[in-house]
Amino acid sequence: MPAAIWAGRNAHPEKVAADIAAALGDELGLGEPPLAVTLSAESAGVPAGSLLPPRERFSGMPAPTRCYVYVDAPTPRAFELRASVMGGRSGIRRSLGLGHLLYAVPLAPRVPSHIELGLGAAPGSVPARFDGDTAVTDRLNRDARLLDLAHALTPATAGLDRQYTWQVACRLTIDPRPDGSVLFVQTLHRPTSRAWSLGAHAVLDFAARAETALV
Amino acid sequence: MDDLLYKLVSAVVTGVLIALVGAMSMAARRRRVAREEAAAPAPVEDRSQILLRQARELDDRRDELAAQDRQAEALAQAREAADLWRELTRVRPGRFHAERRAALGRLSELLADMGQGDQAARVRQEAAGLS
Q1: Is residue A33 within 8 Å of A22, Cβ to Cβ?
Q2: pLDDT score at A171
């Protein structure tokens, strides 16, 4: 997975945060990039007012986490992103690379209880479906496009290349809130023809479709 | 034929070895990182969370003191609360404007009650300037 890697003189958190903000601005067609701040590796990763859960104590990644980049964007719709930034070496140079991306998107419709994308069986068998309150999950599972989007957003394998891969936890949940619900999506960045993508457009697209299905 | 078979087997064995080394390398790295994460101290609360908690406590204390007709003390708490909400909106841009506006509103009321009309007007102007 080629990558979002910052090596040598570019390997500092402020540069990573600026590039993440710029990438989000480009992906979402924003006039100005959203505000991105860095949080230390020791931080719980939850600024005041954030919907994100505290970061996991064990990342499951093969490189240590050096910091987090937190984005709180009000447009095109409100969402938050916490990106973990791993540290390592690129050849002999110190480098930083993108790890997990955790999105939180508030949704207007309220769900009665926790909904999650169930773990899929082995490749080639029945794909994963939404688990939870039957009245809600029936509506979500009826939307084939929604399920396809969900599967595309939650890869189970990450890696530097075909030889060096590791399993990553899939996470796509919708949790109730007093004034609606919140969608959590944990995903990874994807290579593009020129650089890399944070998948923000796909996440917001999924959120919009899920809202339509939940109404 | 033997030569071709030899090359095929060599290629397969080499591929398997490379994949095996890669998998072992990743597993070893993950274990090392997990050990480091287990040894690390518990995650630290973000500074903005501390500011938020303190600002809310000061708001509550201000209102308690005002209800007990202890205006001077309530005013002191209101000033501190307003400072914290200002700091919080600086640390978390785009957030907590309503809370800051409310805190400034209470501060201006207390200032007016204590006969400090000019300051109260300035604070009201600051509150009105918040979008």
Answers
A1: yes
A2: 86
